[in-house]
Amino acid sequence: MSPRTSAKAIIIESGQLLVLRNKGPNLFYTLPGGGQKIGESLPQAIRRECKEELGRDVEVGQLLFVRDYISDNHEFAALHPGVHQLELFFCCRLVDEAAVAPGEPDEHQVGVEWIALDRLPTLDLYPKAIRSHLTQLPNPGVSRPVYLGDVN
Question: DSSP characters for the chain?
């Protein structure tokens, strides 16, 4: 199977990050976004996914991070064997002031939440490796995009 391409939105306003709240054995958080469809650009994929998961339109900005996720190398190998996903994380902005509420949430999504950036180190946010990078945005001393590697 070929690697799957996924586009993710990093939306930060007033020191808070917009995340999806998900259910599993424990509560965990992810960034909005998802798989790219054939014929769809990465910005189009993010806009579609944010409309589904957040019920909102977004403006897609700069590419910030790139991550490989090869499931067989990580803690969820038994749940998702053989998965290889390339994730591209873009800086995004909500287009209007309307309330955020899922339109067509994913199967495990139970809500949408604004989380203070200073809470990220203790939050069960995936990918875990991105947490320290998010607390440093914007950092003019770091060139973008940053390749995070094969991390979880």
Answer: -PPEEEEEEEEEETTEEEEEEE-SSS-EEE-SEEEPPTT--HHHHHHHHHHHHHSS-EEEEEEEEEEEEEGGGSTTTTTSTT-EEEEEEEEEEESS-PPP--SS--TTEEEEEEEEGGGGGGS-EESGGGHHHHTT-S-TTS-S-EEEEE--
Predicted TM-score (pTM) of this structure: 0.86
Structural tokens at position 45 = 């994929």
Of 111, 106, 104, 127, give the one whose Cα is nearest residue 10.
Answer: 127
Which CATH number do you get for residue 118? 3.90.79.10
Q: Per the structure, how many domains does the chain have?
A: 1
CA 2 to chain centre: 21
Residues 47-95: pLDDT tens digits?
Answer: 999 999 999 999 999 999 999 988 777 676 666 677 788 999 999 999 9
Q: Which domain holds residue 30?
A: 4-150
Per-residue pLDDT reduced to its tens digit, 13-28: 999 999 999 987 788 9
